[in-house]
Amino acid sequence: MAKVRRLPDDLANQIAAGEVVERPASAVKELVENALDAGATRVTVEIDQGGVARLVVSDDGEGMTEEDARLALERHATSKIARIEDLARLGSFGFRGEALPSIASVSRLVLTTRARGQNEGAELTVVAGGPVSARPAGASVGTTVEVHELFSNVPARRKFLKATATESAHVTEVVTVAALARPEVTFVLRRDGKVVREWLRAGSRGDRARAVFRDETLVTIEAARGTLSLEAFLAAPERARAGMGSLYIFVNGRPVRDRQLGRAVAQAYGSVLEGGRYPIGVVHVSLPQDGVDVNVHPQKAEVRFAEGRAVMDAVTRALHTELAKAFRVPPLGMRGQSWRGPGPVSSIAGAGSFPFGSSGHGTSDAAYAASVARGQAAAADVAAAQQAGAAGATDALADPWGLAEGAAPIVGLGALGAIAAAVAEPLALPLDGPLGGTDAPFRTRALQFLAQVRLTFLVCQGEDGLYILDQHAAAERVTFDRLRRQHRARTVATQQLLVPELVEVTAAEVALVEERAEEALGLGLELRSFGPTTVAVHAVPKLLVRARPARLVRDLLSELSREAARPFGGAVDLALATMACHGSVRAGDKLTAEEATALLRDLDEVDFAGHCPHGRPIVLRLGWSELERRVGR
After folding, report:
1. Containing H/E element for 451?
2. Which of 9, 87, 160, 317 has fewest C-beta within 10 Å?
3. Which residues, including other chains, have CB under 8 Å from residue 245's CB and lie 6 or more apart?
């Protein structure tokens, strides 16, 4: 056997470089993080040929003396930590002291720097991990690192690099993530001599997120549970994408790739987000430093939580509470204003009335304006009725995750005990009252039902424009919400069938019925096996009497057979959504004015009222100004 030997420094450096520097984007990431740790307010990144031929990162941070710069090019030399205890409270991006020597070992690196208060700078050059050569140089305060011919001395690594466009895209992604992490810093990206990205200093995380996602409408969410707080900027569920490519997650300001956190964010959308899809946006999570271990990945891209379950539950619960409010139907009376948070759709006093509060907006329709006063009194009656029924509905929605009964207590949470205490509390979703972005309670706002079009769409008039609602999607959301409330309260009303209906299924599904008959009964379906491949349906939920029992059964069995960790009881939530789809008003059903008005009123009492349970938008708004523009007024 070969004897144990100490590896040469150049070989050890290349091994370390293999962990830290996978491609040009990896080098850019390390150098940008060093710039941010140095207190930079402006960071410029330049790349040629995707960063393979040349990449440069310049900053206006504190800079270094020649002595510090020499040390920075040695392995495990850093200014970020000094003691073992520092690892438990890291506030910097870097701390390993491996980035610069790793990059220098696989390229020709030129580091030019000048410390604040020094009269001259220094230029240090390293070729393929060789000795450092230094000379005085004129330079502004800060540091510039030039990397030439990356992997030129490691051809085996270089041949695995992708096309120039692909490598450039990875570098762009790195700069984008850094810009989202530090909105107070200006970032400039030049590619082959041209400026392709520039993010000027932003006043807040929200401003930077909206600058990055220029084509998306992001809802701002701020929430806290115990010692965990979060700030999120998320798009509507219909904008979701497969995979986490457009969901950026930061923990204590550090960008991380964490599938568990990503799933926690997706689960907060409930049934309106299809499994396997993730929302577009940015989520910042903050919690005590001693509850997070960032020293688990060479590239610092992953973190480990002291109490992972408590953190995931807290993120999902805190986000869901706010998302349920945020993605309601857009509020009325917002013409000419920015929409910061959606509100309920209506508080209809009755067909033909218009219970609007004073908004200060003029209108060309004198009769419509005059009807406002008539609607005020009617709206007050509706408000009282809704307020009287809100308490019971809130109780039915308490603890939507089913943690109140039979849940195992969370013990030994250490520093995150406060999070666990918050998670253990039942979650009640508000059903009325002022919501984000609206200046007045929703009970003073309303829609007037005008007509049903093609037996599919409900056309309504609001103070700020026309609203067109998909009657099936709206009814599906209302039915789903009622089913879910009844299921949580264990009060699903059933309708016995005069003659049991026989449904042909597979043998495996018959076994599933025998195994999970109690769960099905909790959903309002009384099922019994009736042979090796037959199931008998004895009762269906009263809310779904218009649906075909056979279809309900097949869809329920399909959902119950899937294992998906979703809120509201896992597969049950998806099963309820599917059942609601088949048991609600459909396209082609004729609705009277009273039925349409009642549907609008019911939307005020549900969460995620802007989307059906499967994530489809319910309403389209056409503002008066847009309508006038299109007809040339």
Report:
1. strand 448-453
2. 160
3. none
Burial class (CB in 10 A: 0-12, 13-18, 19+), 234: buried
Q: Report how far residue 131's alpha carbon sits from residue 109's, in angstroms, rounded to the nearest whole number.
A: 11
**Whether 602 contacts 469, CB under 8 Å:** no
Helices (H) and strands (E) in the chain, counts: 18, 24
Q: In the CATH scheme, what is the code of domain 205-326?
A: 3.30.230.10
Bridge partners (DSSP) of residue 251 are 254, 285
Instruction: For the chain, give every domain's residue range.
Output: 9-199, 205-326
**9-199 has CATH 3.30.70.20 classification:** no
Tokens of 155: 């051809």
Amino acid at site 396: A
Q: ∠152-154-160 over CA atoms, to 5°?
A: 95
In whole angstroms, give the CA distance from residue 436 to residue 326.
7
Residue 457 parent element (H or E): strand 457-462
Dump pLDDT digits (tens) for 182-228. 999 999 999 999 999 999 999 999 999 999 999 888 999 998 888 88
Please tell me the distance from the alpha carbon of residue 76 to that of residue 98, in angstroms, as a whole number: 6
Q: Answer yes or no: are the C-beta atoms of 494 and 527 closer than 8 Å.
A: no
SS (H, E, C) 285-350: EECCHHHEECCCCCCCCCCEECCHHHHHHHHHHHHHHHHHHHCCCCCCCCCCCCCCCCCCCCCCCC
Q: pTM here?
A: 0.64
Dump pLDDT digits (tens) for 450-483.
899 988 999 988 888 888 888 888 888 888 888 8
Half-sphere exposure of 563 (CA within 13 A, CB side): 0
149, 108 Cβ separation under 8 angstroms: yes
User: What are the CB-based long-range contacts (under 8 Å, 24+) for 589-593?
Assistant: 589/455, 589/471, 590/452, 590/455, 591/452, 591/458, 591/471, 593/351, 593/449
DSSP character at residue 3: P
C-alpha span between 623 and 332 (Å, rounded): 10
| Token reading at 313 | 């539950």
- For 215-224, letters b (16+ CB in 10 Å) and e give ebebbbbebe
Q: How far apart are CA 542 and CA 368, in angstroms?
A: 39
What crossing angle do the helices spanning 471-488 and 366-397 adopt, rounded to 10°? 30
Q: Alpha-carbon distance 524 to 519, whole Å?
A: 9
DSSP 109: E
Tell me how far CA of residue 20 lies from CA of 106, 207, 303, in angstroms: 11, 32, 16
CA–CA separation, 469 and 457 (whole Å): 6
